[in-house]
Structures are given as C-alpha cells and as structure tokens.
Design a protein that fits this description.
The chain is of the alpha/beta class. The chain is built from 9 helices and 9 strands. Helices cover 33% and strands 17% of the residues. A hairpin with a 2-residue loop joins strand 4 and strand 5. Helix 4 runs parallel beside helix 5. It is globular, with a radius of gyration of 22 Å.
Amino acid sequence: MSSWFKRKDKGIQTPTEDKKDVPKGLWYKTPSGKIIDTEELKENYYVSPEDGYHVRIGSAEYFEILFDDNKFNEFDKDMVSKDPLKFTDTKKYTDRLKQATLKTKLNDAIRTAVGKSCGKDLVIAAMDFAFIGGSMGSVVGEKICRAIDYSMKNKIPFLLISKSGGARMMEASYSLMQLVKTSVKLAQLAEAGLPYISLCTDPTTGGTTASYAMLGDVNFAEPNALVAFAGPRVVKDTTGKDLPPGFQKSEFVLEHGFLDKIIERKNLKKQINLYIDLIQNLPVRN
C-alpha cells in the first residue's frame, strides 16, 4: 500500500524525509486573518500594519521600545515568590512557579527598571502576562512599591504598564493586600509631586484594574485592549443580558470616561514623554 504522501493522484510526490521544515514563528496570523512576516512585525512594534492589531508583548519588548537604546538598570530581578499558604489545586503552587520560570525565563509577573527615555530618567514597571497570566502576587506588589520608592528618592517620573488577569488566587489574601499596598505607595508618589503614568494593555483586568491601573495622573491604553474588572463573559453570565459592541475594549472604556487617551504602540514613547513634560511644566521635547 502506498503512503499518502507519495500518491501521485493527489499531487503529492515528495517523500517525507526529503521535505524541509518551515521554521516555526516565520509568520504571524492576526485574529482577523491577516498574515505578516515576524521580522516585519517586530520592526513595526509588534503591530500588524494591515489591520492595526497589537500583538501581546512583554516587559522585554516594552523596555526596548521605551528606553533609549534599550539601556536600563533593572531592580530586584532575583526576587521570587514564596508559598506561605502551601497552596495546592490541580498542582502545587511551587510547581506552577517553577514551570512558569522555566517557560518564560522570568522570576515573576513584573519587571522594574530605570533608564533614559527621550533623554530623561524614567522608572518603568512592566507586567508579563506569560507568567501565570500576569497575576498580581506579593512579588508584583513589592517590586512596584520599591520602584516607586526609587522614583521618590531620585525624583523621577514613574510609568506602570499593566497586563494582568488580576489577583493571584494561589496567594489569596496576600495577593489582595497588594491592592492597598500599591495604592498607598502611589498616593505618596502624588504627595511628592511626581508624575505617574498608567498604561493599560491587553488584558488589564481584576484587582489590577481595581488598584494601580486606574490611579494614574493620566490613564492611557493601547488600541483594542481589554480593560475591565470582570471580563465580558462573566458580566454576561451574571446579568443575563447581551453586551454592547466592543464592550470593555479600550475604545469603549475611553468613551465612557475611564481612560484619558488611546495611543498606538509606535507613538508610546513620544506621547508618554510629552505628557510627563506637561505634568511637570517642562519645555516640550521634539
């Protein structure tokens, strides 16, 4: 019996051993079906030029976009989560942490750093959704607070890029405490007269939205990002009603007054620094 891949009547004549594998990740397909070369995608700030779809990216990519020449000093990069509750669901929390670290090469769901952006110092905290859904645990809260302390000590503006599914259930009340902890620290930053820019990316949900993501002096978002407390499915199941078109997407949230501006990724660096200058009453940079 002939193998299917040799059947001439199907137009397939190349033996499997002679076929060349296409490198994985060579192309990216957006939800609308647009195809883009991954190198072109990277050069275009990970945005599809045909439909404007903003691909989810992590802290490494945001640092590269926002810091001059991708140069920065990272804070607390060796800080890791503990398991104070000895939590287990389908697997142990400690095992989840190990798996997430191996998969992402990250120690937790946020990275914090200081560097130059448009020639001036800026502290950035950027969340990583790839690490347990960008969930907010004790390490996330602590690293945000320490980054804010650095901002206050050195009188440097602070930018926080949210990308999160919400509180980390494996840390329960320890996770929920981070809502208050980070909010208090941001209040201290405001009292010090230093700018706080919040950037909501896809998705920004749960306890993250209920705390630091919506406390910026200005709250920005990327196009078509989910910005919500409970997601659309949960809201629909709870209310039993059909939701408006685009419900909880950043454009919807902007229209209803919870955001100040939607910024395309290619314009982030310029626009963020423009607003920092305006807040600090500094001359506008070119």
